[in-house]
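In the design runs reported in the main text, the only information available to the sequence generator was the tokenized backbone. The following block is the verbatim input for one such run; it is reproduced so that readers can re-run the procedure and compare outputs position by position.
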């Protein structure tokens, strides 16, 4: 159509492309799994079970005017835009997910692809951030090639095509969950903390890392996030679920950090301790298929990082 987006009402319905969760057996099973779990664990189980429903595999298969290279350039640009506006990594990941799921449902003209990117980002920030970027600021980054009316119309079309289903599991969610979970394993339990407070009179709330360990953790998480950013921009990783990519990114990060530590002539005791603390892996839910995917994804990420060392 003239708008640059295929708006035929006979186009594939998102409800057929993305199966909505059943309210019967699935909800009962999730409720049973989440029973007696803390909030973080419950969120993880829910998001893990939702991954496949929000995964837009081969989203460019029916896009004759959009190439994998164009997709990579746009996502890389969106990452830079998020940093420009100081937006969270969650907003960036969700924007890409919204854009990819829309591409599955609707044909997009090449000259409107950037408009789809900024509109998806606007929708994502409305869902995640306290304050979203102003429309005029987003349009100015596109050299004012699009009008406010075009963006608002596309925003409505995106929401309709996705059935307003925006709470997608993202790389950002699983990255925070896995790292925080590993740290929580080494914290003092509430019962132990109470015993310490009663018998020793100390204000003990749990395990507290040193400044050196905190600094190392920040570098560790920063590198893992950079690896996730690279995978987000590379269309080849579109086939993997976010949790698989994050586990692979953390495994790769740990391996690279350990090699760097072994090659260093300096002694970094805090660095070694952090590597011991972070032993990523969901032992309760992992199976042979998942482990195989993680290994495969890790090797592909290793190649991707080696080709993009300057950006990291």
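Verbatim output:
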């Amino acid at each position: 159509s003239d708008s640059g987006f295929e708006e035929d009402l006979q186009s594939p319905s998102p409800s057929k492309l993305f199966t909505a969760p059943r309210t019967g057996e699935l909800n009962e099973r999730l409720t049973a799994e989440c029973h007696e779990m803390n909030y973080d664990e419950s969120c993880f189980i829910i998001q893990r079970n939702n991954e496949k429903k929000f995964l837009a595999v081969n989203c460019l298969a029916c896009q004759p005017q959009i190439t994998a290279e164009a997709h990579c350039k746009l996502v890389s640009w969106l990452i830079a835009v998020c940093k420009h506006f100081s937006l969270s990594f969650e907003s960036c990941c969700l924007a890409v997910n919204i854009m990819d799921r829309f591409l599955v449902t609707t044909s997009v003209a090449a000259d409107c692809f950037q408009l789809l990117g900024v509109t998806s980002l606007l929708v994502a920030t409305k869902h995640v951030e306290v304050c979203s970027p102003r429309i005029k600021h987003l349009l100015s980054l596109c050299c004012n090639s699009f009008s406010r009316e075009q963006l608002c119309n596309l925003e409505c079309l995106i929401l309709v095509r996705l059935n307003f289903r925006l709470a997608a599991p993202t790389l950002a969610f699983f990255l925070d969950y896995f790292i925080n979970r590993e740290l929580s394993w080494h914290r003092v339990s509430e019962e132990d903390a109470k015993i310490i407070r009663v018998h020793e009179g100390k204000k003990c709330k749990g395990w507290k890392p040193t400044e050196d360990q905190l600094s190392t953790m920040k570098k560790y998480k920063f590198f893992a996030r950079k690896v996730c950013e690279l995978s987000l921009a590379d269309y080849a990783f579109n086939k993997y679920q976010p949790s698989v990519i994050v586990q692979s990114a953390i495994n790769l990060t740990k391996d690279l950090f350990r090699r760097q530590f072994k090659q260093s002539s300096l002694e970094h005791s805090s660095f070694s301790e952090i590597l011991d603390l972070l032993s990523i892996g969901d032992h309760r839910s992992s199976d042979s298929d998942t482990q195989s995917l993680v290994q495969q994804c890790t090797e592909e990420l290793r190649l991707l990082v080696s080709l993009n060392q300057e950006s990291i």
